[in-house]
Design brief:
It is built from nine helices and no strands. The longest helix has 14 residues. Helix 1 runs antiparallel to helix 6 and helix 2 runs antiparallel to helix 3. The two termini are 23 Å apart. The chain is 57% helix and 0% strand. It holds the Pfam family Nitrate_red_del. Keywords: Nitrate assimilation. This is Molecular chaperone TorD family protein.
């Protein structure tokens, strides 16, 4: 589904640790991806230390909300560095290739949502857990999942 590249890039930024660069990009992010305004507005009014502490609480304090697709692996294997290289991209080595912001950036740069759709069930699971946890990060996953085809629920009946 072409046309969501800006959203995927913006969502990748939202799901990274909220440093000073993130805060500097909030207005641009808000304008470029209206689907993320709720999260951007929340981030803009939340004190930096509080936002950073919340990020750590949500994403780094256990496996319940992991941003690594290998944790949410269903039938699809986790993305590998070879997948990135096949599209002319290199990973930085800072995070593994299954880190959700990296996968979103891959989709933004290539226009391919294959990695996202392969992990749709895991993304839905993460989105549900974030919603239940009551974090504004759930709205970022809501926006991403809204761009993807529905999860495959079983054998084709056609």
């Amino acid at each position: 589904m072409p046309g969501f590249e800006l959203l995927y890039q913006a969502a990748a930024l939202c799901l990274m640790y909220p440093d000073d660069d993130f805060r500097a990009r909030l207005q641009l992010l808000r304008e470029a991806a209206p689907q993320l305004r709720e999260f951007a507005d929340h981030a803009a009014v939340t004190p930096p230390r509080e936002l950073a502490a919340h990020y750590v609480e949500v994403f780094e304090a256990g496996q319940d909300h992991s941003l690594y697709l290998s944790v949410w692996r269903e039938a699809a294997p986790a993305p590998s560095e070879e997948v990135y290289r096949a599209h002319g991209l290199e990973t930085t080595g800072e995070e593994p290739p299954d880190f959700l912001p990296a996968v979103l950036e891959f989709a933004a740069r290539t226009g391919s949502i294959e990695l996202l759709t392969e992990h749709r069930d895991g993304l839905d699971g993460l989105r549900s857990r974030l919603t239940d946890f009551g974090t504004p990060y759930a709205t970022v996953l809501d926006a991403v999942c809204a761009t993807l085809p529905p999860a495959h629920t079983g054998p084709d009946t056609a």
